[in-house]
Specification:
Layout: E1 8-10, E2 16-18, E3 33-34, H1 48-54, E4 116-119, H2 126-135, E5 151-154, H3 165-181, E6 185-188, H4 192-203, E7 207-210, E8 213-216, H5 217-223, H6 228-233, H7 236-243, E9 248-251, E10 254-257, H8 271-284, H9 287-296, H10 308-319, E11 323-326, H11 331-335, E12 352-354, E13 359-361, E14 374-377
Parallel strand pairs: 4-5, 5-6, 10-11, 11-13
Antiparallel strand pairs: 1-2, 3-12, 4-14, 7-8, 9-10, 12-13
Helix pairs in contact: 4-5, 4-9
The structure holds manganese (II) ion.
Length: 379
Amino acid sequence: MLPYGTYYEPDPNGGYSATGYEAETYSGYGGARYLEQHWPATGPDQGHTVHAQNGPHEQAGYEPTLPDHPSPAHGGHPGPQSDDPPTIELGPPLAEPGQPYHPYPAPGPGEPPGPLYVVGDVHGYLDELRTELRHQGLIDADGHWSAGRSRIWFLGDFTDRGPDGIGVIDLVMQLAAESAAAGGYCRALMGNHELLFLGAARYGDEPVQSTAGTASFLAAWRLNGGQQSDLERLEAHHISWLSRLPAIALEDGHLLLHSDTTAYLEYGESIPEVNDAVHDLLADEGVDEWWDCFRRFTKRFAFRGDSGPTAVRELLDTYGGTRVVHGHSPIPYLTGAVHADDGMPPHVPGPYVYAEDLAVAMDGGVTMEGRLLVSRLPI
Ligand SMILES: [Mn+2]
């Protein structure tokens, strides 16, 4: 298996060269700090603390501990709205054909929005995603939305490296429909692996003329963890959904991005401009423009070091918000706490706040036996 985060890209001498973390230096994390994740489970030193330290595959018999009745404050089922009783019992509303039925009430006018959650890079780790969502009370034992009017943003990179990327996309699409019926939402950003996967499906082995040499999306996708079973199960509705994901969003003052890069600025000066530019590119442009977009959104580490806070402020000044929340660069690599080849699973206690507290990293490194992070904002 390839070391996580090592991107193999064409080099001018032919073949591929790794351009991952190995080439980076780890210096200047001024002001960085870890924050322990808040878990709804009770008691110290159980469940996820061990889970985090030992990695997701090491804890035999691990079962998430859930409160019997998740409170609405933590995204639980809001229960009947006793202040708005029906005068005539009409029975449950009928679902649209093909749409799941869910009995949750829509928010009334003036009601505050539900709690906000973000989910880091999933990369095909469907079982781990289900476990974390269940642990936070966001889905029930059958994998259905149980969070009422809660709001979730996935930060992108659903596929590649892990075993079931299409299963992850299917779950997120299902939760998007179910949450909307409940008066909440489940939304997602486009990560660089969405561009890579869509590019592999669309362009296959078609050569790309990049500045670094000749490549193809299919070759790059395979070298970066692409799973043949995902490509074989990719359907038109997946492509349609993935192609329309926004690249940036602003929620409760949090500027949500997949990648820790300022390359978004090259696509527009407002959030709609950037998202429209990416969608137009995906709809109309050729393989070289796709590849260029993929390359730009694969950059990383812009918020580290002495210049990091300035880079974050440039994004916040342009797009709004008071803090950036991103995925893409696994926390163990951002902190320099682990090297890809030392054989030890990294310790990821929770989201990583850095760049003078202006940035929150959410990729817990699930592909390297770290953590898949699901966290409530603000942190
Ligand atoms: Mn990524």
